[in-house]
Amino acid sequence: MSNDNTQMIKKAQRLSPVELIEAHYKYVNYPGPILERMLSLVPPMTSVLDIGAGDRAFTIPFAKIVQHITIVEPSLAQTAWLLENAERSELNNIEVINKRWEEVNKKDLDLYDVVIASHCFLMPDIKAAIQKMICHTKKTLFLVAKAGNGLNEIFDQVFRNYCNNSCDYINLYNYLYQLNYPANVNIIIRMFSHPWDLMIDILRLSYPISDDTELNLFQCLERDGQIMRDHNGYWINSWHKDALIWYNVDENHRS
């Protein structure tokens, strides 16, 4: 293990939310291969719409290579973290719409080369939401959804409804098909080792975690064989599957 990794673990408690998220993404390699696959599928682009942008996963990498990116993100906290990250990267080409996707007026949106929606599919009318995405896509629509996770079952036991935060990727694919948009799907697997202390700090950004809850989570993961220990402390060894769904928009299908 490198000295950089050791120092990151020791400093986890002192990191800001933005720094915690940045460290977390490095360990789980996100968006990593998903982003690489996206970039391999689209020609040079100038504009991107990122729906449910969250704290920056796709926004910052795309903002570095396009002229303009618009994000739709209702959470003020997530937006603040994203903009702090953008400032660190000296980016000033990001436009923010602090609304839910279903609340955004079509008149406030342009036509974008690429439209991305990632893990944000708990919408009242998902078909209407997808159709609206297509209406604003010039070249390619990307949907990113969970396809499996070694931690989901245990996290759901401990935190209740942890897994209930996204639509199944098969349903998303079927919705596109029903709307006459035959899409493509890639399943991308990410194996990872993640510092235990850093994972707890990340979870604390979203959940109240008592000492009993932390102990319960640790014991559940240990029984499942997902905890490893070395001279630097405890690590979670697990995996994540992402479904990357994409559709290349035909001019005749944009209505």
Protein described:
- This protein is of the alpha/beta class and 255 residues long.
- The chain has a single domain, classed as Rossmann fold, CATH 3.40.50.
- The chain is built from ten helices and eight strands.
- Strands 1, 2, 3, 4, 5, 6, 7 and 8 form an eight-stranded mixed beta sheet that branches.
- A hairpin with a 2-residue loop joins β7 and β8.
- α2 (17-28) crosses α9.
List keywords for this structure.
alpha/beta, 255 residues, eight-stranded mixed beta sheet, Rossmann fold
Structure at a glance:
By secondary structure, the chain is α/β, with parallel strands linked by helices. It has helices at residues 3-11, 17-28, 32-41, 59-63, 76-88, 126-135, 152-159, 169-178, 196-204, 211-223; strands at 47-51, 68-72, 94-97, 112-118, 137-149, 184-195, 227-230, 233-248.
Instruction: Provide the β-strand percentage band.
Output: 25-35%
User: For this structure, what is the CATH homologous superfamily?
Assistant: Vaccinia Virus protein VP39
Cα Rg = 19 Å
What gap, in angstroms, lies between the N and C termini? Answer: 53 Å
What structural category arises from helix and sheet content? alpha/beta
Q: Can you tell me the residue ranges where pLDDT is under 50 for at least 5 consecutive residues?
A: 8-12
CATH topology: Rossmann fold
Number of domains: 1
Q: What overall form do the CA principal axes indicate? A: globular
The percent of residues in helical segments reads 25-40%
Number of strand segments:
8
